[in-house]
Every structure is written in structure tokens, then in C-alpha cells.
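Running low. Got one?
___
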Amino acid sequence: MSTPCLWNNPANLKPVMPSDAPLLDRFFQLAGYRDCNYNVVNVFLWQNIDPLYYIVDSSGRYLLLFILTEHEFYAFAPLCSPENLREALEELDWVFQRNQMPFVIPWCPTIVQNELERLYPHRFTFEVNSNETEYIYQAEKLRTYAGKQMQKKRNHVNYFLKTYEGRFEFREMNTIGCRDCLALVERWMVNREPSRALEAEHKGILDLFALNQFMDFRVGGVFVDGILEGFSICSWLIPQQVVQVHVEKANGDIRGLYPCLVMKMQVEFYPTAILVNREDDVGVESLRQSKRSYHPDEYWEKAYCKEKNEPTIRPCEEPAKF
């Protein structure tokens, strides 16, 4: 793949490296966005699709994070505290204008939308994509499956616990368990259509196990007769408040395994969490039905921010300057 001319001379922009995880995490927490894309674990899980670059302002008040494809250039919302958001957005706007690229934030939090409207009235549109709406659950509901609404999940879990009593075990996984997890993913993919997203997720899981020294996430697995049949990867999206489920794979032929895995992750690793963000369904109907079967308590929408009138983009005749 050829490198777009925008990046012939990236100047102060740095490629995101594994050792940058603590820095990114600090700025993600500083911003406090609740969108699942603003999570350092999520970044490294999917980074192998498109490379990421960043820059930190000289006083350390904000971090700008960019995604580059061969034909596109777009940004995350500025990572900073609310009092520095205005200055960070002005700097971000300058980067887009200097490179004659349209201003695009694919996942634009409400606070950023409001600030953009104050800074640049009527310049942007904010489009909500229902396929990217995130499913939010009360954590206690997933820890207990209490209530009439969760009766079916409770029945499935009870069936699993009774049928496999003495034969199953929930364990915390570490780097040694990577091989088992990848083997399960490969089994899980057998009857599914190959896709770039599935291949990227497969590689991303491998990357996360290799990078666990740089970031905080938990991996739990359910073993049946000594064989890993389901595992999940979770982390704090908002510390001590919101847990994010990044990966959830299990043998669908084993009744009750999926809801048991969901419950065990919250009971064993996040007993004090308030909410669980199980991310979006990316428009996949089977995934949508699965997430809805747990009866979400909230839906968090994501807005795609872009300029109403895109700037004229001319061929790149000289290296970009930042």
C-alpha cells in the first residue's frame, strides 16, 4: 500500500506504539468520553486495520489522535479536560485546513458537538448511525439476571450450571491462555463468512495478549471438561463506573454458555460496576438480536461529524507541515 502524500513529512505527529498505551489511557480518562471508541484497549484491538498517529501540545493540555487510511484522514475528538476543549478544537481545525482535508470526527461526543457549534455555527452536520448505537446495561442485572424480564437468561444459565456441574470452570486468562483463545476464535469462525473485520479482530486479540503489560484489561474463560469453550475481554471505560465488553466468543452449541460467561465476567471481575457497555452491533442482525435479548437499559448514540461544505482538495504538491 502506498503512503498518502499527506504523511510524507509527519513532523511532530507520532505513530501510536504499544509503549504509548499509558499516555493514551491518561488522556482518554482526562476527556471522560463514554463512547466505546475512546478506550485504549479498543484502540489497540483494532489498530491493525488503520494506523494511528498522535500529537501532544507543548504544555501537555491535550492530545490529538488521528486515523489514516490510504484515501482518508480523520480524527478522534480531542482528548483533554473540558476547559481545554476549545483550544484543542481550534488546533484540530488548523491541522485539517493546513492539509486541505475535510474536518471529520467519526465518533463525536455531545460535548464536542456543542463546542463546535459555538465555535463554528452551522458549519457541521452531526449524523447518527443506528448501526453504531451502543447497548448499555445495568451491571447488577447482568450479575444476577433477576426479574421477570431476564427469566429466559436465568433459565439458560441454570440449565448450564446443572448440566455441567463439576465439569466446568471459570478462570482468569493470561498470556499463556492466548493459544486457547485463538484456537476458539478459529473454531468460532469456521461457519462464518470471512471478512476484514473478523480477521482484524483475530489479530487484535493476539496483539492484546502481547500488550497486557501496557494496559489494564481482564480476560476470563469458561472451560468445559478442560477445554476452553468461551472467553471474554473487558476493561473499564469509565473507572469504577462503566465496564466495556471488547470481545465475547463462545461455543453456541452449548446451551447457557454465553449468558453464563457474561454473568461470570461481571461477578468475578467487576462486582462494583454500575453500567456495562456491550458496544454496537455494526448492523449485523444476529448480533443485534443477541444484544437486545439482554434487554438494554439505555442506548448511547454516536454522531458522525463532518463539514457541510467540504473544502476543495488539491493534489499534494509538497510535504504537509504541522
In short: The first strand starts at residue 14 and ends at 15. Residues 1-11, 312-322 have pLDDT under 50 and may be disordered. Residues 45 and 204 are 4 Å apart (CA to CA). The chain has two domains: 5-129+302-307, 134-299.
